[in-house]
Amino acid sequence: MTVPAPSRPQFPSRRSNGLFASFGHAWAGLIHTVAWQRNMRIHLISGVLVGLVGSGIPLGLAEKVTLIFCVLLIFFAEILNSALEQLVDLAVQQFDEKARLTKDAAAAGVLVLAGGTVVIFAAILINYWETVRTNTDAIFRQVALGVPLAACATVLVLPQPRPAAVDVLAFILAMGLLALTASTSASLVFTALTAALLVIAAAAARERRRHPQP
Known about the structure:
This protein has one domain (29-210). 79% of the residues lie in helices and 0% in strands. It has helices spanning 19-36, 38-56, 61-91, 97-127, 129-134, 136-157, 164-182, 188-210. The longest helix is centred in the middle third of the chain and has 31 residues, at 61-91. It is globular. It is a multi-pass membrane protein. InterPro entries: DAGK, DAGK_sf, UDPK. A divalent metal cation binds at residue 85.
């Protein structure tokens, strides 16, 4: 007598499938990835640093678009990589060489993009080195404000448990420092990018407190 296979539980239906609900699900996926994926946290801090550099050095339109596109492309690749890893873990319950190669190949794609972004970033800095050298006062001011700002962003994405007040203080301090840099920003687009990344970091910190993982 054939024993029927146990039925899998039905996937719970979402309460709403409208446009705004779709945005909410996408936002939740982004925040979850930042909250629990180490590499995504590294990319976020790198994006903050790129935003600070872009707002401190007067770049051309092509360079601005290139840097912003690189940041967003790395985010996109890391999110896909994380989703693929979760899918492989769900489908393969035991070790499988093909599953390992699949994960490695996806991670390699992110690594190639990250390496290419570093090369592009270095090439832009070298090309604008004369501008950097002749604007030392503005650069020093940007560094003086940007280093503690990046430190606050790092605190927000650290996975270690801590009081909520620490995250609130770090976020307020980071936004205050960003407001000071905005007054002399060479590009409000990069300033806005930095602000958006800080909001994402704060949301990820809140996600870790609400849904801690063992």
